[in-house]
């Protein structure tokens, strides 16, 4: 039997539910799922910036996949600044979005804001880049690449590049690092060094290494300085295509031939990188796939449905040498 108190609670609950359904209809957010009434999922996405061709392709992929899935996407560009990402995430918490996804510009310094999201019961999905945290419960999963392995692959493909070029003698490497403190910068350096130390301790040496912020302008500027201080560099390992493309300009300005006088290995595989490779200016590219949107939306839905997910959902990628560039170019999607 319903007591008066229980009855009131039930009545208020029913009214609230009806109200919610009405709201959902009013703002046009009700989904067209068979049951109807459930509101569209809102995803708050905080992007790193627009520093590279990879990033542009990644942002486009997220936007179009959200549209395709019928989600409401709130998107913000942090211009490579952590404080902008933190305030974007705080905004999404205040707006009570259903899920927050973000690609953290650097690995450290996220615990406080992630705890705020947890307290507000908003699940967080990392995409592309990882964070360092002592509390694993602060995010559900990471959808992205294995950057350490990309670094190893870069070293392995450099062996082939040196071989093909018939290179003899010491290998003097210049490294253009990504954004300082960012997962792909840390891990691409680590994986490369791992192979170098294990297999080439005698003949390979990184003679200069500095960040070029993952941008073309940064790559050009830093490479010009490298060439001044170390004119005998014969290999460039750039953590992304854009820095490699900027460096090519600096190499040419210094009167040297990129891809010949200086052998070049980059990471990403954006169209402009492939064009430079087909022109003989880049020797090899380690692919890092930015088209994470569809996979991310799938994960977001699973998070909402309470499905159990792996801690890291890895992206599948390939490597490309110069002689594959022309054939591969027409089918590159980014
Ligand atoms: O390689 C670079 C971009 O985090 C994997 O960020 C991404 C990297 C990518 O700026 O081009």
Automatic annotation (TrEMBL):
Q: Which residues form the Periplasmic binding protein domain?
A: 45-308
Q: Please report which protein family the annotation says this sequence is part of.
A: Belongs to the bacterial solute-binding protein 2 family.
Q: Which organism is it from?
A: Streptomyces mesophilus
The Swiss-Prot or TrEMBL record annotates one GO molecular function as: carbohydrate binding
> Signal sequence: where?
1-24
Matching entries from PROSITE patterns are given as: PROKAR_LIPOPROTEIN, TAT
Localization terms from the record = Cell envelope
Which keywords does the record carry?
Answer: Signal
Does the UniProt entry include the keyword Zinc? no
Q: What is the lineage of its organism?
A: Bacteria, Bacillati, Actinomycetota, Actinomycetes, Kitasatosporales
- GO cellular component: a single term: cell envelope
Name of this protein: ABC transporter substrate-binding protein
Name the domain of life. Bacteria
KW Nucleus (keyword) present: no
Name the Gene3D superfamilies on file: 3.40.50.2300
């Amino acid at each position: 039997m319903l007591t008066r108190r229980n009855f009131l609670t039930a009545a208020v609950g029913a009214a609230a539910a009806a109200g919610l359904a009405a709201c959902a209809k009013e703002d046009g957010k009700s989904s067209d799922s068979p049951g109807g009434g459930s509101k569209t999922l809102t995803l708050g996405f905080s992007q790193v910036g627009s520093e590279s061709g990879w990033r542009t392709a990644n942002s486009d992929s997220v936007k179009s996949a959200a549209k395709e899935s019928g989600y409401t996407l709130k998107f913000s560009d942090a211009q490579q600044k952590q404080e902008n990402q933190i305030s974007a995430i705080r905004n999404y918490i205040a707006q009570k979005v259903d899920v927050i996804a973000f690609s953290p510009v650097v690995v450290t310094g996220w615990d406080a804001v992630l705890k705020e999201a947890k307290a507000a019961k908003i699940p967080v999905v990392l995409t592309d880049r990882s964070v360092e945290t002592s509390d694993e419960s602060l995010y559900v999963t990471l959808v992205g690449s294995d950057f350490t392995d990309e670094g190893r692959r870069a070293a392995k493909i450099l062996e082939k590049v040196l071989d093909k070029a018939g290179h003899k003698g010491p290998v003097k490497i210049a490294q253009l690092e990504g954004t300082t403190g960012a997962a792909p910068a840390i891990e691409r350096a680590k994986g490369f060094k791992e192979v170098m130390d294990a297999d080439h301790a005698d003949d390979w040496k990184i003679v200069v290494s500095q960040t070029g912020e993952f941008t073309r302008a940064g790559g050009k500027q830093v490479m010009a300085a490298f060439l001044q201080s170390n004119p005998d560099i014969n290999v460039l390992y750039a953590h992304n295509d854009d820095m490699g493309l900027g460096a090519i300009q600096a190499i040419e300005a210094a009167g040297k031939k990129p891809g010949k006088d200086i052998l070049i290995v980059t990471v990403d595989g954006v169209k402009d990188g492939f064009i430079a490779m087909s022109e003989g200016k880049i020797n090899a590219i380690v692919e890092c796939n930015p088209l994470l949107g569809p996979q991310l939306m799938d994960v977001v839905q699973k998070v909402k449905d309470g499905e159990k997910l792996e801690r890291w959902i890895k992206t599948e990628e390939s490597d490309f040498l110069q002689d594959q560039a022309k054939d591969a170019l027409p089918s590159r999607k980014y």
